[in-house]
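Exercise 7b. Backbone tokens:
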């Protein structure tokens, strides 16, 4: 076996030193530094969560007031009744009163099939053209808000002999819908 020269011994010593530094780095310092980085990232995430939670806490009073105002306004947008049947009765009463107030005559009322949370009604009435305009205005401005889903108008006697005058009364069929909310 040949002995190593001074130059080779130094080279081997440097390689051993580099290997020792790599082992220390990979085995000891790298996990410690990655732990610091992960804890720093977790601190930043928690700081963002805390800031978000603080904004929610600060807005709680405002959100509560908005919820109370919306609860008070619910009657403007929904029929408030414990059951859909009770809401349908309220809608019938309200629409028949609007027809009577407009000066018309209610001929028939019938519940229509509606989606969940809605109530629909078909009403047949006899009105003059001016009364029909008043009725539509009142339906438009009624509370809770009503939706006219269909409107059919027929003028019985409009096509008659030339000697008789056309009737000013119209047969009107209106499909009205409203939202329903339990009491």
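Sequence design result:
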């Amino acid at each position: 076996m040949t002995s190593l020269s001074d130059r080779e011994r130094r080279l081997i010593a440097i390689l051993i030193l580099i290997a020792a530094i790599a082992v220390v780095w990979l085995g000891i310092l790298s996990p410690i530094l990655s732990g610091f980085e992960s804890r720093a990232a977790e601190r930043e995430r928690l700081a963002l969560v805390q800031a978000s939670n603080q904004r929610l806490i600060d807005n709680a009073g405002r959100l509560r007031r908005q919820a109370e105002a919306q609860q008070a306004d619910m009657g403007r947008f929904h029929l408030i009744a414990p059951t859909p049947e009770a809401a349908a009765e309220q809608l019938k009463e309200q629409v028949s009163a609007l027809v009577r107030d407009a000066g018309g005559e209610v001929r028939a009322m019938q519940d229509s099939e509606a989606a969940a949370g809605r109530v629909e009604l078909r009403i047949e009435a006899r009105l003059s053209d001016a009364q029909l305009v008043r009725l539509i205005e009142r339906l438009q401005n009624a509370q809770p808000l009503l939706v006219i889903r269909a409107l059919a108008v027929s003028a019985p006697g409009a096509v008659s002999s030339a000697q008789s005058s056309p009737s000013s009364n119209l047969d009107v069929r209106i499909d009205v819908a409203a939202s329903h909310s339990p009491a």
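Instructor comment: The chain has two domains: 1-74, 81-181. Confidence is low (pLDDT under 50) at residues 161-166.
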